[in-house]
Amino acid sequence: MKKITIAIDGFSSCGKSTMAKDLAKEVGYIYIDSGAMYRAVTLYSIENGIFNGNTIDTEKLKQDIKNIRISFKLNPETGRPDTHLNGVNVESKIRSMEVSSKVSPISALDFVREAMVAQQQVMGKEKGIVMDGRDIGTTVFPDAELKIFVTASPEIRAQRRYDELKAKGQKASFDEILENVKQRDYMDQHREVSPLRKAEDALLLDNTNLTIEQQKKWLFEQFNKIT
Ligand code: C5P
Fold this sequence. Notes:
Rossmann fold, 9 helices, binds cytidine-5'-monophosphate
């Protein structure tokens, strides 16, 4: 069967990665969480004094960006890929509230996006890939055969994120998460470079009132229609 490229974009915490991972596993495709890459650059910036308070040392980040190596390695315990930053597993660290609250300004920098998009395009050269993010259908893989744009209400998304962090035993406040979700929505939609928007040929999925199972079924139907 011919392999295709699948782009899943949408707002933060709307279940994109769950559906993307499930589909990739089921059809034997590679799964790439592009948000994890922007989170890893953000963690690097925090740990290396580039993101200090509210200030970003863009000159230093520009110099360092070529030395930031991001890779994904399968975690045999979870069966899912963990994010590695310069060889170190940072999967847990990149999901912290600190990284979540600083990732949008980092991902708005043009040279950061250029570097990440170039890496993502290499990852998808052979097709057979499901990538989720904000600009996959518009910028990274504009020719993807299947494009999905996912959305859900901010409150539902904050609740899902809250439950996820709690389940992992991490500290979480619903109000803080809701505020973060709304702020990221705004910044991701209003940045100059590759703002979050639905590609014209993307299918819209509002999963506010869908269970994970219903959403999974819908996605498989779309995949089966075109393969
Ligand atoms: O998907 P996730 O919520 O982990 O992404 C974290 C952040 O990374 C987003 O809020 C957005 O600012 C940025 N991002 C992006 N482009 C992508 C994926 C994520 O700008 N393709």
